[in-house]
Design brief:
The chain is α+β, with helices and mostly antiparallel strands. About 10% of the residues have low confidence. Helices cover 48% and strands 13% of the residues.
Length: 194
């Protein structure tokens, strides 16, 4: 009988550690957002508002880049047209409940900076080919994600083709139902093992 509370306590500890292992310090991202908005303010441009869906996509993209080494041809130094293509891009959009039609006018800007040194990160966006996008008045929102040495900025617009509004399509609903059924299965299996 004493083993049930012990298993319950151990289960809670494991769940707690799993949940908090995904939480990381967002200092690099917060610093970059403040720096970008200060840069835009110095140009008399409106500050960028945080967009949760753009942040989700930025996090997913940073995760895709994390295993790529920093070189002189990655991130902000990439020659336009030679950026890596991700065959799973539709899946990344789906994870963030987005679709192509609401992200078409947005801009994804990855940068690789060893140890994500704040001043270098900011200059990778304000003193590179990316500055043209940061200077553009059509962009009104931003999402920032980072993983390892990579940081990704996703710019959004206020028009429907770049607003990064949620995908309410039936395909996304089917995807969500699939995730729910997997979660229920895991929960039932866990309860049976106890």
């Amino acid at each position: 009988m004493a083993s049930i509370p012990r298993y319950f306590f151990i289960s809670l500890l494991v769940l707690h550690s799993l949940l908090f292992s995904f939480v990381k310090c967002d200092d690099e991202e917060d610093n970059l957002l403040k720096g970008i908005n200060s840069y835009r303010a110095s140009l008399n441009l409106k500050t960028l508002r945080e967009n949760d869906k753009a942040k989700c996509l930025a996090d997913e993209m940073a995760d895709q880049f994390k295993d790529q080494p920093c070189t002189n041809t990655t991130g902000a130094n990439t020659v336009p047209g030679t950026e890596p293509q991700f065959s799973n891009y539709p899946k990344l959009l789906s994870k963030c409940k987005l679709n192509v039609t609401t992200t078409r006018d947005g801009m994804i800007m990855p940068a690789c900076v060893p140890n994500l040194v704040p001043d270098l990160v900011l200059s990778n966006f304000t003193k590179s080919q990316y500055s043209n996008y940061l200077n553009d008045t059509k962009f009104s929102g931003v999402g920032i994600g980072s993983d390892d040495n990579w940081i990704v900025v996703v710019l959004t617009t206020s028009n429907p083709e770049g607003s990064f509004t949620p995908d309410n399509s039936s395909a996304n609903l089917v995807f969500q139902l699939g995730l729910i059924s997997h979660a229920v299965f895991l929960l039932v299996a866990f309860l049976i093992l106890l």
